Amino acid sequence: MIGTLAAHAANRVHPWLLRCLVPPALAFVALGGEPAAAQTYPTRQVTIVAPLAAGSGLDLVVRVYGEQLAKSLGKPVVIENRTGAATMIGTNFVATSPPDGYTLLAATSSAMAINPTLYKKIAYDPARDFVPINFYLKSPFVLCVHPDVPAQTLPELIKHIKERPTPLTFGSPGASTAQHLSVEFIKSKFAVDITHVPYRSNPQYVADVVAGHLNLAFIESATASQLIAQGKVRGLAVSTAARMQILPNIPTLAEASGDPEIETVSWHMLFAPAATPRDIVDRLHADMKKITNTPEFRKLLLDRGQVPVDSPPIEGIKRYIASEQEKWGTLVRRLGLEGSQ
């Protein structure tokens, strides 16, 4: 509604006539305090690229707020899944898209905080190529094993691995993801060998853990809690700093591993290409903040075992991303994985 009214207001007077009648210094005031780009934006469909598969935790949440954003903008918002290469295919696509507010990116910590250290070379630079729009959730993981694995706790799992003649297997949605690095932390901490099997999406590797084709994996808490309740997997540890309300009997990875500083959660943010006009960025930031702060949206996340975030201002989000790059970069280097991909 807001976007539609703004567009109609801008269309009543031709921009050339406005320039003739209104001195430049007063034009901003004459337009109600809103720059011209924000007055006319959007005039067509907006696309949000999700670099993980349809049905993943990121995808499901994007579709919820995408529907609300469409109402706010007065134009369709389409979710486009571009998966692969540890989320870098979709991320690269948006990095090179026109910076006009019509192509946005829903990204996780993997793309923006882990990949820069883990990979020898990536085609995009998080700080140079993107501007954050909204920081809306943190996503914990649960270390899950197939019921055939004879372990009720992480120490029992380590003992079982060391006694086996062949390594267990674990899945993730790709190298460099938080799920992958969480198992790499366990491998390093306890000097055990577990074979990594990278997939293109969350649903694929989760399905293979449930089917017994993989022995274990860190699974997003929303999905893990359902599978644990159904007896399809067994939860051994959660990746948060404190125990989770929806899984109070499962210890944290810090408790289970004896490393009090370890926490491996993902986060989700909405981004635009860096050169997007600031008035459009501010418009999107304000609209998204209203959407993601509603009780309904926060309840959706909490019910899924995710942690809602009251988005800081854009500069505050940038500072948080920088701190996360330092945290994940330190872990990657500590595990000896810097430039390993």
Could you walk me through the main structural features you see in this protein, from its secondary elements to its overall organization?
The structure is a single chain. The protein has 341 residues and is an alpha/beta fold. It contains 16 helices and eleven strands. Strands 2-1-3-10-4-11 form a six-stranded mixed beta sheet, sandwiched between helices. Helix 5 crosses helix 14 and helix 7 packs across helix 16. The longest helix has 21 residues. The N terminus is likely disordered.
Write a short abstract of this structure:
The protein has 16 helices and 11 strands.
Shape: globular
In CATH, the homologous superfamily of the largest domain goes by the name Bordetella uptake gene, domain 1
CATH class identity of the largest domain = Alpha Beta
Order of helices and strands: HHHHEHEHEHHEEHEHEHEHEHEHHEH
Total domain units: 2
| Terminus-to-terminus distance | 46 Å
Strand order of the largest sheet: 2-1-3-10-4-11
Largest sheet: 6 strands, mixed
**In percent, how helical is the residue content?**
40-55%
- Helix count? 16
Radius of gyration: 22 Å
SSE-based structural type: alpha/beta
> How many β-strand stretches?
11
Q: How confident is the prediction overall: mean pLDDT?
A: 88
Name given to the CATH architecture of the largest domain: 3-Layer(aba) Sandwich
Low-confidence stretches: 1-33
Percent of sequence in beta strands: 15-25%
CATH topology of the largest domain: D-Maltodextrin-Binding Protein, domain 2
